[in-house]
Design a protein that fits this description.
The chain is about 35% helix and about 25% strand. By secondary structure, the chain is of the alpha/beta class. Strands 1, 2, 3, 4, 5, 6, 7, 8 and 9 form a nine-stranded mixed sheet that branches. α4 crosses α5 and α4 packs parallel to α6. The protein is rod-shaped, with a radius of gyration of 48 Å.
Length: about 290
């Protein structure tokens, strides 16, 4: 009996995502279970037999056809133990960002549904370094420096915050990059408390200013400098220009005076009509005669 090997399991890979074993479709591959060398088309060295999906992992047994020198070499190295790992090629069918599918340190969505399309013997394998996936026609090969088409998670609703992101948040908050999650959360709570206190003081200051403006406008109404129906207008003006400019404006205004107050109701004093020179001369003659 040959050596059984694990093809894949649910663990997190070096790109920050994982492939759920429960969602892997092996039916198509079982109809043509070719075994390749290092994921290279045209380098068929045998096939996989007795493929099993159980206990959260997929296992199988490689069989070498020895039809080529490469196959014979791989078989000898497999039996000797210098080659001992395989890697699976997946087609990505569905992914999920839901918290139930994420684990600590995960930075990309979980592949919840996939399809095996090939298995290869590899020199460096395991599902954190040598899995090959295809998504929307783009191949993903872990461990060779290629780009990953699966998007980064933009979701901090779960408690599994990636360490790199935690470091960046810590530095932004002025903390050491080694600060743990508890220290970061404490700093965030402190900043929130300070923000709430500033907002409370701002509101109290606004209320005080409004009270001063309203009192100044009420005094102007009482002094008949403005009409009562102008009160809202001058309160709005006070909010724009401030209490000092409002007081300056109101102080320059003259109280309204009723027209009737400017007219005198007392009768005008009567005066005798002026006498002519002749009448004055006659008055003088009469006065001399009476002496």
């Amino acid at each position: 009996m040959g050596k059984r090997v694990r093809l894949t399991n649910d663990t997190l890979n070096s790109y920050g995502y994982r492939v759920l074993t429960s969602g892997v479709d092996v039916s198509q591959y079982e109809r043509n279970p070719l075994l390749l060398y290092m994921h290279e088309r045209g380098k068929v060295i045998g096939y996989m037999k007795d493929i099993r999906v159980e206990d959260g992992e997929i296992t199988g047994e490689p069989c070498f056809d020895e039809a080529t020198e490469l196959s014979r070499q791989c078989k000898k190295q497999w039996e000797f133990g210098s080659l001992r790992m395989v890697s699976i090629g997946f087609d990505v069918l569905e992914t999920s960002k839901e918290a139930e599918h994420l684990v600590e340190g995960q930075t990309r969505p979980t592949v919840t549904k996939s399809r095996i399309y090939e298995v290869s013997v590899v020199d460096i394998g395991a599902n954190d370094d040598a899995i090959v996936l295809r998504k929307d026609g783009t191949q993903i090969t872990l461990g060779d420096g290629s780009d990953c088409p699966l998007p980064l998670l933009n979701n901090n609703s779960n408690n599994n915050q990636p360490q790199m992101e935690l470091k960046q948040i810590a530095l932004t908050l002025g903390l050491p990059e080694t600060a743990d999650e508890a220290t970061v959360n404490a700093k965030l709570a402190e900043l929130k408390s300070s923000k709430d206190e500033v907002e409370k003081m701002r509101k109290e200051n606004d209320d005080l200013k409004l009270a001063q403006i309203t009192a100044a406008v009420d005094a102007a109404v009482a002094a008949k400098k403005i009409n009562a129906d102008q009160k809202d207008h001058f309160i709005g003006l006070g909010k724009k220009v401030g209490i000092e400019d409002l007081n300056t404006t109101l102080a320059a205004m003259t109280p309204a005076v009723k027209l009737s107050g400017t007219l005198s109701t007392d009768p005008a004093p009567t005066s005798a009509p002026a006498k002519s020179p002749w009448e004055e001369c006659m008055d003088e003659i009469r006065a001399n005669c009476n002496k």
